[in-house]
Each structure stands twice: as structure tokens, then as C-alpha cells.
Sequence to fold (329 residues):
Amino acid sequence: MSRIIGQAMPNIPWEDKPEGNQMPLWRYSKNPIIGRDGNKVSNSVFNSAVVPFEDGYAGIFRCDSKSISMDIFVGKSKDGYHWEIEDEPVQMEGADGEILKNEYRYDPRVCFIEDRYYVTWCNGYHGPTIGVAYTYDFKKFVQLENAFLPCNRNGVLFPRKINDMYVMLSRPSDNGHTPFGDIFISQSRDMEFWGRHRHLMSPVPGNLSAWQITKVGPGPTPIETDEGWLLIYHGVITTCNGFVYRMGAALLDLEEPWKIIYRSKDYILAPHEYYECVGDVPNVVFPCAALADADTGRIAIYYGCADTVTGLAFTTIDDILSYLKEHHI
Ligand code: BMA
Fold:
């Protein structure tokens, strides 16, 4: 039995694994949980991040508007399934007006570290880079310096310091749809200056695991377990119809998380359902958040579906780690 290290979450969204299902993840039977019309302005609501907050949940949601501009919005939920998303985008304050300029914001992650919630997102600053902010209450947001130079996407914090350093995953990219991409890990003493960059993983060449042949990028905040950090990530293949996004998993060393213990050979979730295959960008499952209950080992993963709606999938730490150990590279 593997163990999640973290808080108990007795009200985590949950459904038991359907009889006969051989896969490590199973979808919520009432997916998608958030449709296109998540707030008044939205054309689509996807690639969004949620955390436990007060007696329920809070989140930062990517809502692309009907003019197809990308921005991030606060949402609240009592049960993790039904969300009230604000109609006005997140307003940030901060020490430097230069950093507060808002070109575009998308693909948020939220991570509780020590005493506050950190938000990271893909932030337009002369190209995509990683924006960083913190909040205590999901009302006031203080924006810090961008973590990296452009172009970079998918900035994902670890939920605690490791060897006295804040640690962030990211995926250096280009200014377009990026036909390449490796995941790196960077470290910081103060959440402002990032360095000690370490390579984590590349796409997999050849015919071994072609769903992740083009690029890979980190998904939710890594989940701490007694065996290592569980990282859920996306992997991409280029087909004659464009990119296809699937989900994989990896187990990383607890003290030196740039060391991979296991990495998926087989995907753990792929766009098979209608709402994952049909939408504004077909054939995309894109995980950005996971809730984990240390008592039961249950995990609920929030993911964008076809860049249009938001879905929920379930697993347990035993289901996902035993699958990973049987189907790794
Ligand atoms: C990536 C990002 C994601 C998106 C994905 C598929 O480059 O833009 O937000 O879900 O492409 O379109």
C-alpha cells in the first residue's frame, strides 16, 4: 500500500471505479462538470486549478471569452463539482507596474505552500512566461516577478520547499504552438530569483511511447507520497490532424525530484469521450489540478477537455502507482 503525505480531505469528489475498468483513471459519470458557459463572458472553461479552501473549494479558472481572449477568474465551490465562477477576471496588485501589465493569462495552477496559495500561470510578457502571485483569501492577489524569461509555459510549484528551496517545474517553449518541449525543474530561495535548473524529462523518440513523442509538460501540483512525488503530466504526438494531448504519470525522487523513479510508457488517460474529442481544439485532455485525500488515498483530477469544457477523473494512489510500475519506460 502506498501512502499520500498531506492533508485529509473527507469531502473530496469521488466515484468508485466502474466494474471491469482496466485503466488507472476513470471519469466522473456526469462529465463535463463545467460547460462552455461557466461565467457570463466565457466561450470555454478549461485547464483550470482547484484547491481545498475554507469549508469547500476555491479555484482559478481559465475562461476564454467570446472575443477569444484568454484570462483567469476566481471560482468557488462547496462540493468540488458545482462551481460559481466570477464574471470579472482576477485583479492583481504588486510592487512593480511593469509586471502587472496584462497581455494575456492562461493555464493556471494553484499550490498551497506554508501559509498561502500561490497561483502560477502562463503570462504574456513579450511572449509567454510564468506569472506568479499569492493570495490568502482568493480576493486580494499579490503578483510577484515573472519566474523566467519568455518563452515558457506550464509553471507548476511543488507544495513544499525541498532542501530549503521552493521548486518549480516548467516547460520552455516558443511563441507559437511549440512542436517540441522538455520539462525542467528550477529552484528559488525567495520565489523571485530562480536558478539551479535541472532537466527532468524529454519527449520519447521512436516507437516506444509515441503518444509523448512531440512534447511533454507538467500538469497538477505534484502529490507527495512515501515512495516519491507523483507527477501527472501531458504528452503530445503530432498527427495528420494536428496535436493529440494525453496524460501520463511519473514518480520522482523526494529529495532530488529531477531524478525519475518511474515514467509512464502507456498513457493513463486519452481523449476518447465525445467532449474530449470534439470542441474548439479536438483531442485534448490537459490536467491542471488534483485533489488528494491522505486518509483514503483517493485522488480527483481536474482536466481541460478539447480546450472547451472541464472534466473530472478519479484514481487512487494504489491504482495509479501500480499501473505506473507495470507500464513504465
Ligand atoms: C497548449 C496550451 C494549452 C492547450 C493546448 C491544446 O499549447 O495552449 O492551453 O490546452 O495547447 O490546444
Summary: Residues 47, 106-107, 177, 245, 281, 284, 286, 304, 307 surround beta-D-mannopyranose (CB under 6 Å). The radius of gyration is 18 Å. The chain has a mean pLDDT of 98. Residues 253 and 259 are 5 Å apart (CA to CA).
